[in-house]
Amino acid sequence: MAEQLKAIKGMNDILPPESARWEWLEGTVRALMRRYGYQNVRTPIVEPTALFVRGLGEVTDIVEKEMYSFEDSLNGDKLTLRPEGTAGVVRAINEHTFLYEGGKRLYYIGPMFRHERPQKGRYRQFHQVGAEAMGFHGPDVDAELILMIAALWRDLGIQIGTDVKLQLNSLGQPAERLAHRQALIDHLQAHHDVLDEEARRRLHSNPLRILDTKNPAMQAVVEAAPKLIDFLGEESLAHFNAVKQVLDAAGVPYEVNTRLVRGMDYYNLTVFEWVTDKLGAQGTVCGGGRYDGLIEQLGGKPAPAVGWGLGMERLLLLVQELGIEPPSTAPDAFAVVMAGTPLAQVLTTIDRLRAKGVNVVLNPAGKDGPASPKSQFKKADGSGAHFALVFGPDEMAAGQVSVKPLRDGAQQVSNSISDVESWADSLTAYRRS
Ligand code: ATP
Ligand code: MG
Description:
- This protein is α+β, with helices and mostly antiparallel strands.
- The protein folds into 2 domains: 18-172 and 232-321, BirA Bifunctional Protein, domain 2, CATH 3.30.930.10; 333-432, 3-Layer(aba) Sandwich (Rossmann fold), CATH 3.40.50.
- The protein contains 16 helices and 16 strands.
- The protein has helices at residues 18-36, 49-56, 61-66, 86-95, 139-156, 174-190, 197-202, 207-210, 219-223, 234-250, 294-297, 312-321, 343-355, 373-382, 393-397, 420-432; strands spanning 39-40, 46-48, 68-71, 78-81, 104-113, 125-134, 165-170, 254-256, 268-275, 284-290, 305-311, 333-337, 360-362, 387-391, 401-405, 416-417.
- An 8-stranded mixed beta sheet has the order 1-5-6-11-10-9-7-8.
- The protein starts with 17 loop residues before the first helix and ends with a helix.
- The protein binds adenosine-5'-triphosphate and magnesium ion.
- Adenosine-5'-triphosphate is lined by residues 84, 114, 116, 121-123, 126, 128, 263, 282, 284-287, 309, 311, 313-314.
- The site of adenosine-5'-triphosphate (ATP) has 18 residues, from strand 6, strand 10, strand 11 and helix 12.
Protein backbone atom coordinates (compact mmCIF):
# COMPACT_ATOMS: atom_id res chain seq x y z
CA MET A 1 0.00 0.00 0.00
CA ALA A 2 1.23 3.49 -0.81
CA GLU A 3 1.84 5.72 2.20
CA GLN A 4 -1.09 8.04 2.97
CA LEU A 5 -0.37 11.70 3.30
CA LYS A 6 -2.05 13.71 6.05
CA ALA A 7 -3.24 17.30 6.28
CA ILE A 8 -0.98 19.76 8.08
CA LYS A 9 -1.52 19.96 11.84
CA GLY A 10 -4.07 22.62 12.77
CA MET A 11 -5.48 22.74 9.24
CA ASN A 12 -8.88 21.11 8.85
CA ASP A 13 -10.85 19.46 6.08
CA ILE A 14 -14.47 20.56 6.05
CA LEU A 15 -16.58 17.74 4.66
CA PRO A 16 -20.34 17.14 4.38
CA PRO A 17 -22.50 17.30 6.41
CA GLU A 18 -20.43 19.90 8.32
CA SER A 19 -19.83 21.89 5.13
CA ALA A 20 -23.60 22.57 4.98
CA ARG A 21 -23.22 24.64 8.17
CA TRP A 22 -20.47 26.63 6.47
CA GLU A 23 -22.59 27.27 3.38
CA TRP A 24 -25.48 28.35 5.58
CA LEU A 25 -23.23 30.79 7.48
CA GLU A 26 -21.67 32.13 4.28
CA GLY A 27 -25.09 32.58 2.68
CA THR A 28 -26.37 34.40 5.76
CA VAL A 29 -23.30 36.65 5.75
CA ARG A 30 -23.59 37.47 2.04
CA ALA A 31 -27.28 38.40 2.42
CA LEU A 32 -26.38 40.57 5.43
CA MET A 33 -23.64 42.38 3.52
CA ARG A 34 -26.05 43.16 0.70
CA ARG A 35 -28.55 44.61 3.17
CA TYR A 36 -25.87 46.93 4.55
CA GLY A 37 -24.33 47.85 1.19
CA TYR A 38 -20.97 46.11 1.64
CA GLN A 39 -19.37 44.75 -1.53
CA ASN A 40 -17.20 41.68 -1.84
CA VAL A 41 -13.42 41.97 -2.18
CA ARG A 42 -11.04 39.08 -2.89
CA THR A 43 -7.34 39.53 -2.34
CA PRO A 44 -4.47 37.00 -2.57
CA ILE A 45 -3.79 34.62 0.29
CA VAL A 46 -0.04 35.23 -0.05
CA GLU A 47 1.38 38.72 0.38
CA PRO A 48 4.85 40.23 0.80
CA THR A 49 6.01 39.67 4.40
CA ALA A 50 6.74 43.40 4.72
CA LEU A 51 3.02 44.18 4.37
CA PHE A 52 2.19 42.51 7.68
CA VAL A 53 5.34 43.64 9.50
CA ARG A 54 4.58 47.26 8.57
CA GLY A 55 0.82 46.94 8.86
CA LEU A 56 0.36 45.03 12.11
CA GLY A 57 3.41 46.30 13.98
CA GLU A 58 6.58 44.41 14.85
CA VAL A 59 5.72 43.94 18.51
CA THR A 60 2.49 42.00 18.09
CA ASP A 61 1.69 38.33 18.73
CA ILE A 62 1.10 37.77 15.04
CA VAL A 63 4.32 39.28 13.71
CA GLU A 64 6.49 38.08 16.60
CA LYS A 65 5.51 34.42 16.52
CA GLU A 66 2.47 33.46 14.45
CA MET A 67 3.24 34.16 10.80
CA TYR A 68 3.76 31.50 8.15
CA SER A 69 6.62 33.24 6.38
CA PHE A 70 8.88 31.68 3.79
CA GLU A 71 11.20 32.47 0.98
CA ASP A 72 10.02 31.70 -2.53
CA SER A 73 12.71 29.21 -3.54
CA LEU A 74 12.42 30.24 -7.19
CA ASN A 75 13.18 33.94 -6.80
CA GLY A 76 14.00 34.60 -3.15
CA ASP A 77 10.92 36.79 -2.48
CA LYS A 78 9.93 36.98 1.19
CA LEU A 79 6.29 35.94 1.44
CA THR A 80 3.71 35.32 4.17
CA LEU A 81 0.39 33.47 4.23
CA ARG A 82 -2.02 36.18 5.33
CA PRO A 83 -2.65 36.05 9.10
CA GLU A 84 -5.53 38.53 8.85
CA GLY A 85 -7.46 40.32 6.14
CA THR A 86 -7.21 44.05 6.72
CA ALA A 87 -3.61 44.62 5.60
CA GLY A 88 -4.25 42.94 2.24
CA VAL A 89 -7.42 44.95 1.62
CA VAL A 90 -5.56 48.18 2.43
CA ARG A 91 -2.74 47.20 0.08
CA ALA A 92 -5.30 46.52 -2.66
CA ILE A 93 -7.20 49.79 -2.28
CA ASN A 94 -3.90 51.70 -2.26
CA GLU A 95 -2.59 49.86 -5.28
CA HIS A 96 -5.77 50.56 -7.25
CA THR A 97 -6.36 54.09 -5.82
CA PHE A 98 -9.74 52.64 -5.02
CA LEU A 99 -10.90 55.45 -2.73
CA TYR A 100 -10.44 57.99 -5.54
CA GLU A 101 -14.17 58.63 -5.85
CA GLY A 102 -14.88 58.46 -2.14
CA GLY A 103 -15.47 55.94 0.61
CA LYS A 104 -15.97 52.24 0.01
CA ARG A 105 -17.59 49.53 2.10
CA LEU A 106 -16.10 46.09 1.52
CA TYR A 107 -16.24 42.59 2.94
CA TYR A 108 -14.34 39.34 2.52
CA ILE A 109 -14.69 35.71 3.52
CA GLY A 110 -11.70 33.41 3.47
CA PRO A 111 -8.88 31.48 5.11
CA MET A 112 -6.22 33.05 7.38
CA PHE A 113 -3.06 31.40 8.68
CA ARG A 114 -1.42 31.67 12.09
CA HIS A 115 1.19 29.35 13.55
CA GLU A 116 -0.47 28.85 16.95
CA ARG A 117 -0.90 25.81 19.16
CA PRO A 118 -3.99 24.07 17.76
CA GLN A 119 -6.88 23.59 20.23
CA LYS A 120 -10.65 23.95 20.24
CA GLY A 121 -11.46 27.25 18.52
CA ARG A 122 -7.82 27.89 17.58
CA TYR A 123 -6.35 26.52 14.38
CA ARG A 124 -3.47 27.19 12.02
CA GLN A 125 -5.73 27.66 9.05
CA PHE A 126 -8.97 29.28 10.09
CA HIS A 127 -11.55 31.42 8.36
CA GLN A 128 -12.69 34.95 8.84
CA VAL A 129 -15.47 37.14 7.62
CA GLY A 130 -14.29 40.72 7.63
CA ALA A 131 -15.98 44.03 6.90
CA GLU A 132 -14.06 47.23 6.22
CA ALA A 133 -15.46 50.74 5.71
CA MET A 134 -12.75 52.92 4.18
CA GLY A 135 -12.78 56.66 3.66
CA PHE A 136 -15.37 57.52 6.31
CA HIS A 137 -14.57 59.54 9.43
CA GLY A 138 -17.83 59.47 11.33
CA PRO A 139 -18.95 57.43 14.30
CA ASP A 140 -22.04 56.59 12.23
CA VAL A 141 -19.99 54.04 10.28
CA ASP A 142 -18.43 52.59 13.44
CA ALA A 143 -21.92 52.14 14.88
CA GLU A 144 -23.29 50.70 11.63
CA LEU A 145 -20.54 48.08 11.59
CA ILE A 146 -21.46 47.02 15.12
CA LEU A 147 -25.20 46.99 14.39
CA MET A 148 -24.46 44.80 11.39
CA ILE A 149 -22.95 42.13 13.62
CA ALA A 150 -25.89 42.43 15.99
CA ALA A 151 -28.11 41.75 12.96
CA LEU A 152 -25.99 38.72 12.09
CA TRP A 153 -26.52 37.32 15.60
CA ARG A 154 -30.25 37.79 15.15
CA ASP A 155 -30.22 36.15 11.71
CA LEU A 156 -28.41 33.15 13.18
CA GLY A 157 -30.59 32.89 16.29
CA ILE A 158 -27.85 33.94 18.75
CA GLN A 159 -29.04 35.95 21.77
CA ILE A 160 -27.30 39.29 22.29
CA GLY A 161 -26.41 39.99 25.91
CA THR A 162 -26.50 36.32 26.94
CA ASP A 163 -24.90 34.13 24.25
CA VAL A 164 -22.61 36.95 23.08
CA LYS A 165 -21.71 40.21 24.78
CA LEU A 166 -20.35 43.39 23.26
CA GLN A 167 -17.32 45.05 24.83
CA LEU A 168 -16.45 48.55 23.75
CA ASN A 169 -13.56 50.94 24.31
CA SER A 170 -11.89 53.95 22.76
CA LEU A 171 -8.14 54.08 22.19
CA GLY A 172 -8.23 57.78 21.38
CA GLN A 173 -5.73 59.39 19.02
CA PRO A 174 -1.94 58.82 18.88
CA ALA A 175 -1.16 62.01 20.86
CA GLU A 176 -3.53 60.98 23.65
CA ARG A 177 -2.02 57.53 23.70
CA LEU A 178 1.46 59.02 24.04
CA ALA A 179 0.49 60.92 27.20
CA HIS A 180 -1.11 57.80 28.66
CA ARG A 181 1.86 55.67 27.61
CA GLN A 182 4.31 57.42 29.92
CA ALA A 183 1.93 57.16 32.87
CA LEU A 184 1.45 53.49 32.07
CA ILE A 185 5.16 52.75 31.80
CA ASP A 186 5.75 54.47 35.15
CA HIS A 187 3.04 52.36 36.77
CA LEU A 188 4.28 49.09 35.29
CA GLN A 189 7.88 49.95 36.12
CA ALA A 190 6.86 50.39 39.75
CA HIS A 191 5.62 46.77 39.69
CA HIS A 192 8.47 45.37 37.63
CA ASP A 193 8.80 42.27 39.85
CA VAL A 194 5.28 41.09 38.92
CA LEU A 195 5.73 41.45 35.15
CA ASP A 196 6.31 38.31 33.13
CA GLU A 197 9.04 38.03 30.54
CA GLU A 198 6.81 39.11 27.66
CA ALA A 199 5.56 42.15 29.56
CA ARG A 200 9.12 43.20 30.43
CA ARG A 201 10.05 42.92 26.78
CA ARG A 202 7.06 45.02 25.73
CA LEU A 203 7.37 47.57 28.52
CA HIS A 204 8.96 50.18 26.26
CA SER A 205 7.97 48.91 22.82
CA ASN A 206 4.24 48.28 23.28
CA PRO A 207 3.10 48.85 26.89
CA LEU A 208 -0.57 49.14 25.94
CA ARG A 209 -0.55 45.49 24.85
CA ILE A 210 0.50 44.46 28.35
CA LEU A 211 -3.00 45.44 29.49
CA ASP A 212 -4.30 42.65 27.24
CA THR A 213 -2.35 39.97 29.18
CA LYS A 214 -4.03 36.73 30.13
CA ASN A 215 -1.45 36.03 32.87
CA PRO A 216 -3.41 35.74 36.17
CA ALA A 217 -0.40 36.87 38.21
CA MET A 218 -0.45 40.24 36.46
CA GLN A 219 -4.17 40.97 36.68
CA ALA A 220 -4.01 43.14 39.82
CA VAL A 221 -1.27 45.37 38.43
CA VAL A 222 -3.03 45.70 35.11
CA GLU A 223 -6.33 46.42 36.85
CA ALA A 224 -4.80 49.33 38.76
CA ALA A 225 -3.00 50.80 35.74
CA PRO A 226 -3.86 54.31 34.51
CA LYS A 227 -6.76 54.13 32.07
CA LEU A 228 -6.34 55.41 28.54
CA ILE A 229 -9.93 56.66 28.52
CA ASP A 230 -8.99 59.23 31.20
CA PHE A 231 -6.47 60.74 28.76
CA LEU A 232 -8.93 61.27 25.91
CA GLY A 233 -9.68 64.80 24.70
CA GLU A 234 -13.06 66.27 23.84
CA GLU A 235 -13.11 65.16 20.22
CA SER A 236 -12.26 61.56 20.95
CA LEU A 237 -14.84 61.41 23.72
CA ALA A 238 -17.48 62.92 21.42
CA HIS A 239 -16.76 60.21 18.85
CA PHE A 240 -17.03 57.51 21.51
CA ASN A 241 -20.27 58.96 22.89
CA ALA A 242 -21.82 59.16 19.43
CA VAL A 243 -21.17 55.44 18.89
CA LYS A 244 -22.64 54.62 22.29
CA GLN A 245 -25.72 56.74 21.59
CA VAL A 246 -26.52 54.75 18.46
CA LEU A 247 -26.12 51.46 20.32
CA ASP A 248 -28.33 52.73 23.15
CA ALA A 249 -31.00 53.86 20.71
CA ALA A 250 -30.84 50.52 18.88
CA GLY A 251 -31.12 48.62 22.15
CA VAL A 252 -27.79 46.81 21.69
CA PRO A 253 -26.35 46.27 25.17
CA TYR A 254 -22.61 46.74 25.65
CA GLU A 255 -20.02 47.01 28.38
CA VAL A 256 -17.28 49.64 28.30
CA ASN A 257 -14.07 47.71 28.95
CA THR A 258 -11.32 50.26 29.44
CA ARG A 259 -8.66 47.53 29.17
CA LEU A 260 -9.73 46.37 25.75
CA VAL A 261 -6.84 47.18 23.39
CA ARG A 262 -6.96 44.57 20.57
CA GLY A 263 -3.97 42.73 19.17
CA MET A 264 -2.86 44.92 16.30
CA ASP A 265 -1.03 48.23 16.56
CA TYR A 266 -3.13 49.98 13.97
CA TYR A 267 -6.27 50.75 15.97
CA ASN A 268 -7.43 54.17 17.21
CA LEU A 269 -10.70 55.56 18.64
CA THR A 270 -13.42 52.86 18.64
CA VAL A 271 -12.42 49.26 19.40
CA PHE A 272 -14.78 46.42 20.23
CA GLU A 273 -15.06 42.70 20.72
CA TRP A 274 -18.00 40.31 20.80
CA VAL A 275 -17.22 37.68 23.41
CA THR A 276 -18.89 34.51 24.64
CA ASP A 277 -18.38 32.46 27.80
CA LYS A 278 -19.52 29.29 25.98
CA LEU A 279 -16.19 28.45 24.29
CA GLY A 280 -13.71 28.40 27.17
CA ALA A 281 -10.51 30.35 26.61
CA GLN A 282 -11.30 31.05 22.95
CA GLY A 283 -14.04 33.49 23.88
CA THR A 284 -13.61 36.25 21.30
CA VAL A 285 -15.82 35.59 18.31
CA CYS A 286 -15.47 38.95 16.58
CA GLY A 287 -13.21 41.94 17.04
CA GLY A 288 -12.68 45.23 15.31
CA GLY A 289 -12.21 48.93 15.46
CA ARG A 290 -11.07 52.09 13.73
CA TYR A 291 -7.66 52.27 12.07
CA ASP A 292 -7.38 55.77 10.65
CA GLY A 293 -3.59 55.66 10.25
CA LEU A 294 -3.12 52.36 8.43
CA ILE A 295 -3.87 53.39 4.86
CA GLU A 296 -1.25 56.15 5.02
CA GLN A 297 1.18 53.90 6.93
CA LEU A 298 1.03 51.46 4.03
CA GLY A 299 1.82 54.15 1.48
CA GLY A 300 -1.67 55.27 0.48
CA LYS A 301 -3.24 58.72 0.46
CA PRO A 302 -4.37 59.33 4.07
CA ALA A 303 -7.92 58.12 4.64
CA PRO A 304 -9.80 56.94 7.73
CA ALA A 305 -11.08 53.39 8.06
CA VAL A 306 -12.90 51.07 10.42
CA GLY A 307 -13.67 47.36 10.32
CA TRP A 308 -14.05 44.03 12.06
CA GLY A 309 -13.03 40.40 11.68
CA LEU A 310 -15.04 37.41 12.79
CA GLY A 311 -13.75 33.88 13.36
CA MET A 312 -16.02 31.47 11.49
CA GLU A 313 -14.86 28.29 13.29
CA ARG A 314 -15.57 29.88 16.67
CA LEU A 315 -18.93 31.16 15.51
CA LEU A 316 -19.89 27.70 14.23
CA LEU A 317 -18.75 26.11 17.49
CA LEU A 318 -20.93 28.59 19.35
CA VAL A 319 -23.89 27.87 17.08
CA GLN A 320 -23.46 24.16 17.74
CA GLU A 321 -23.01 24.72 21.47
CA LEU A 322 -26.32 26.62 21.48
CA GLY A 323 -28.09 23.80 19.62
CA ILE A 324 -28.95 26.00 16.65
CA GLU A 325 -29.63 23.92 13.54
CA PRO A 326 -29.31 25.39 10.06
CA PRO A 327 -32.21 24.86 7.63
CA SER A 328 -32.26 21.36 6.13
CA THR A 329 -30.31 20.77 2.94
CA ALA A 330 -31.93 17.37 2.28
CA PRO A 331 -32.92 16.89 -1.37
CA ASP A 332 -36.56 17.05 -2.49
CA ALA A 333 -36.35 13.72 -4.21
CA PHE A 334 -34.16 10.65 -4.59
CA ALA A 335 -34.27 8.79 -7.90
CA VAL A 336 -34.56 5.02 -7.54
CA VAL A 337 -33.90 3.27 -10.87
CA MET A 338 -35.17 -0.28 -11.55
CA ALA A 339 -33.30 -2.70 -13.75
CA GLY A 340 -34.11 -2.39 -17.44
CA THR A 341 -35.16 1.27 -17.37
CA PRO A 342 -33.62 3.27 -20.25
CA LEU A 343 -31.00 5.51 -18.57
CA ALA A 344 -31.25 8.25 -21.16
CA GLN A 345 -34.92 8.72 -20.34
CA VAL A 346 -34.26 8.62 -16.59
CA LEU A 347 -31.56 11.25 -16.75
CA THR A 348 -33.40 13.62 -19.07
CA THR A 349 -36.54 13.39 -16.91
CA ILE A 350 -34.55 14.16 -13.77
CA ASP A 351 -32.84 17.04 -15.50
CA ARG A 352 -36.18 18.55 -16.52
CA LEU A 353 -37.22 18.43 -12.85
CA ARG A 354 -33.94 20.06 -11.83
CA ALA A 355 -34.45 22.78 -14.43
CA LYS A 356 -37.71 23.55 -12.60
CA GLY A 357 -35.81 23.91 -9.33
CA VAL A 358 -36.43 20.43 -7.90
CA ASN A 359 -33.42 18.99 -6.03
CA VAL A 360 -32.98 15.43 -7.18
CA VAL A 361 -30.24 12.96 -6.19
CA LEU A 362 -29.70 10.10 -8.61
CA ASN A 363 -28.75 6.69 -7.29
CA PRO A 364 -25.99 5.61 -9.68
CA ALA A 365 -25.97 2.00 -10.86
CA GLY A 366 -23.24 -0.42 -9.83
CA LYS A 367 -21.01 -2.44 -12.17
CA ASP A 368 -23.79 -5.02 -12.60
CA GLY A 369 -26.62 -2.53 -13.07
CA PRO A 370 -29.03 -1.03 -10.50
CA ALA A 371 -28.95 -2.27 -6.88
CA SER A 372 -31.98 -4.09 -5.41
CA PRO A 373 -35.09 -1.94 -4.80
CA LYS A 374 -34.74 -2.61 -1.07
CA SER A 375 -31.23 -1.22 -0.85
CA GLN A 376 -32.14 1.73 -3.09
CA PHE A 377 -35.12 2.65 -0.91
CA LYS A 378 -32.91 2.46 2.15
CA LYS A 379 -30.57 4.96 0.53
CA ALA A 380 -33.50 7.16 -0.48
CA ASP A 381 -34.68 7.24 3.12
CA GLY A 382 -31.17 7.92 4.43
CA SER A 383 -30.79 10.88 2.08
CA GLY A 384 -33.52 12.74 3.97
CA ALA A 385 -35.44 13.29 0.71
CA HIS A 386 -39.18 13.93 0.85
CA PHE A 387 -39.91 11.61 -2.07
CA ALA A 388 -38.52 8.60 -3.83
CA LEU A 389 -39.02 8.84 -7.58
CA VAL A 390 -39.29 5.30 -8.88
CA PHE A 391 -38.19 4.82 -12.48
CA GLY A 392 -39.36 1.44 -13.86
CA PRO A 393 -39.27 0.16 -17.48
CA ASP A 394 -43.07 -0.15 -17.83
CA GLU A 395 -43.81 3.25 -16.28
CA MET A 396 -41.14 4.92 -18.42
CA ALA A 397 -42.63 3.37 -21.54
CA ALA A 398 -45.97 4.94 -20.53
CA GLY A 399 -44.26 8.30 -19.85
CA GLN A 400 -44.78 7.96 -16.09
CA VAL A 401 -42.71 7.99 -12.91
CA SER A 402 -44.17 6.74 -9.62
CA VAL A 403 -43.68 8.85 -6.54
CA LYS A 404 -43.37 7.41 -3.05
CA PRO A 405 -43.66 9.84 -0.14
CA LEU A 406 -40.89 9.28 2.44
CA ARG A 407 -41.82 11.92 5.00
CA ASP A 408 -44.93 12.99 6.87
CA GLY A 409 -47.05 15.36 4.83
CA ALA A 410 -45.42 14.48 1.53
CA GLN A 411 -48.55 12.50 0.52
CA GLN A 412 -50.16 15.78 -0.52
CA VAL A 413 -48.14 15.81 -3.72
CA SER A 414 -49.31 13.65 -6.64
CA ASN A 415 -48.00 10.10 -6.39
CA SER A 416 -47.28 9.85 -10.08
CA ILE A 417 -45.48 12.11 -12.51
CA SER A 418 -46.91 12.21 -16.00
CA ASP A 419 -46.23 15.88 -16.63
CA VAL A 420 -42.83 16.83 -15.20
CA GLU A 421 -43.40 20.59 -15.19
CA SER A 422 -46.78 20.54 -13.43
CA TRP A 423 -45.52 18.00 -10.86
CA ALA A 424 -42.66 20.41 -10.08
CA ASP A 425 -45.21 23.19 -9.61
CA SER A 426 -47.26 21.11 -7.16
CA LEU A 427 -44.02 20.40 -5.27
CA THR A 428 -43.33 24.13 -5.03
CA ALA A 429 -46.79 24.62 -3.52
CA TYR A 430 -46.09 21.79 -1.02
CA ARG A 431 -42.75 23.35 -0.09
CA ARG A 432 -44.47 26.64 0.71
CA SER A 433 -47.09 24.97 2.93
P1 ATP B 1 -7.24 35.61 20.30
O1 ATP B 1 -7.08 36.61 21.38
O2 ATP B 1 -8.27 34.57 20.59
O3 ATP B 1 -5.93 35.02 19.85
P2 ATP B 1 -7.05 37.57 18.24
O4 ATP B 1 -7.12 38.87 18.95
O5 ATP B 1 -5.71 37.06 17.84
O6 ATP B 1 -7.84 36.43 19.05
P3 ATP B 1 -8.10 38.72 15.83
O7 ATP B 1 -6.79 38.89 15.21
O8 ATP B 1 -8.82 39.90 16.33
O9 ATP B 1 -8.01 37.61 16.99
O10 ATP B 1 -9.04 37.93 14.80
C1 ATP B 1 -10.47 38.06 14.78
C2 ATP B 1 -11.14 36.76 15.12
O11 ATP B 1 -10.60 35.66 14.40
C3 ATP B 1 -10.99 36.33 16.56
O12 ATP B 1 -11.88 37.01 17.36
C4 ATP B 1 -11.30 34.85 16.49
O13 ATP B 1 -12.69 34.63 16.46
C5 ATP B 1 -10.71 34.48 15.16
N1 ATP B 1 -9.38 33.85 15.33
C6 ATP B 1 -8.19 34.45 15.58
N2 ATP B 1 -7.20 33.56 15.62
C7 ATP B 1 -7.77 32.34 15.38
C8 ATP B 1 -7.27 31.00 15.27
N3 ATP B 1 -5.98 30.72 15.38
N4 ATP B 1 -8.16 30.00 15.04
C9 ATP B 1 -9.48 30.25 14.90
N5 ATP B 1 -10.01 31.49 14.98
C10 ATP B 1 -9.18 32.53 15.21
MG1 MG C 1 -4.40 35.66 18.67
